[in-house]
Amino acid sequence: MHHDRQNDLEKSFSSFAPGYWADEGVSEEDWNNPTWQLKNRITSLAGLEKHLVLSEEERNGVILSGTKLAMAITPHFFNLIDREDPECPIRRQIIPRVEETFISPYEMSDPCGEDSSMPVPGLVHRYPDRVLFLVTDRCAAYCRYCTRSRVVSGAGEQDLETDYEAAFRYLEEHTEIRDVLLSGGDPLLFSDSKLEKILSRLREIKHIEFLRIGSRVPIFLPQRITPELCEMLQKYHPLFMSVHVNHPRELTLEVKEGLERLANNGIPLGNQAVFLRGVNDDLDTMKTLVHKLLMCRVRPYYLYQLDLIQGSSHLQAPVAKGIEIIEGLRGHTTGYAVPQYVIDAPGGGGKVPINPDYVLQKNDERVVIRNFEGKTYEYPEPAVQPDPILDY
Ligand SMILES: *Cc1c(COP(=O)(O)O)cnc(C)c1O
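Above: the input record for the complex with pyridoxal-5'-phosphate. Below: its predicted structure, written as tokens.
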């Protein structure tokens, strides 16, 4: 019974507000104000313990987080935590644990080798025709498994130090770049006018065809997705947005409304989920997630194997399990709902697609394939055509 109810809750689009803030007399106006949400983020042990009983692992994790990746949780997102459930999938993403200080031999501070592909501070040019532009080091809240924890939040070992003018100059000179991805940190933490300055400057560069923003603000801080923001963004089309949702509970009523507002302004939405142990490493959860995403008009884009970031081993799930989940989706549900599973190759190889094997055999004459139900089929390769000039 409890399990069914929990299931229904995960599948529905509920509001969790004011939740833990019910006794504090917060007005609806404050709650819906993004500035109030940011000012009232939980950033301290005392703030956390006001609402939750922490485990020893969490307590020590919070104390140690100040030297690594800061803790910050918006009231909106904090409300998704189920305080009755010590294994809560929201809690695992956002509350530090002491395991973050355990470093395994394969783990790195820059697991995707970004720093070595930066021609200009803050601009990662890894692929031939597109760049990743790290415009800020701040987020609305901090994911404990952040691949950029070395530069994000201000607590870690490095500073981001993006050189905007040098970046714009590089983009102007490199006419092969047709796609700019704004990320960080989270670009949607900038004010509308600051963000617009960047977008309009990029639009002055004629060879840049395509813009996109990577952001978890629609999830952490849906109050920020105002009609004014959407109105501004739609001037810079084609502009896509990649959001980051890992668990179905994150898709609340407020988040759905924000995503719809973006979609109504013509912004195609994709999701980049991270495969996390104890969060979304089972087929049922992932299926609910991708179905809810489609209902919010978000196309699941990538499912990332967790980068080998230092202190992440407690969140690592096996690749074999990820493949099994993709296999459980492909053919069994809407094709639009199936993300591409990728490993961002350790050390800087870029994203590599990881797929279940559907080709059982392949030679010059034929391929033997299997379908989602495991039935095998043969497809003959076209016969080699004689060359009309050489073979006369
Ligand atoms: C992920 C990423 C991109 C964008 O890759 P797509 O596959 O086009 O989404 C671009 N640059 C870097 C460095 C990236 O990590």
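Notes for the reader.
The mean pLDDT is 96.
The chain has two domains: 1-356, 358-392.
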